[in-house]
Amino acid sequence: VVAKSTITKASETSQQFFNLAYNWSSRSDYKKRITKIKQAKLVTSQVLANDYLFPEVGGTADYIDNNGLKSSVVQVAYYPKATNDDQTSGVVGVAVNAKHDSDVGNGETRYYYFNIDYQTSDNQITSLDYVGRLAVNQST
Asked: Which residue, of 31, 66, 88, 124, is most buried by count of CB atoms within 10 Å of its CB?
């Protein structure tokens, strides 16, 4: 029973985190992601330093506004591998829809996969590693 609640908490925390990380519709929203995630205390500082999710390289924010890019989370799914009373590790699949103002149709949904470690006592994601991505073009 305890392991189930650990998995439930990890799933809920993953959903909150990825909704904050991938839901944005402007340069301003995009730049506020880290602040919102820090305030929610969903992840450790090591996860916030993840260069894949939060690249240090500039230009992304300009690209968002110049192209009217919007990003929205379609689904977050947690698949546990190993679980005990205080922690769980597994894989998170995140479906994200990206759409430019100029796109005809629904844009493109991409499926991102991450290895994840979650600590129940802190209610935080302690490790998050990008595994890969699957793209499905839905514009046509």
From this structure: 88
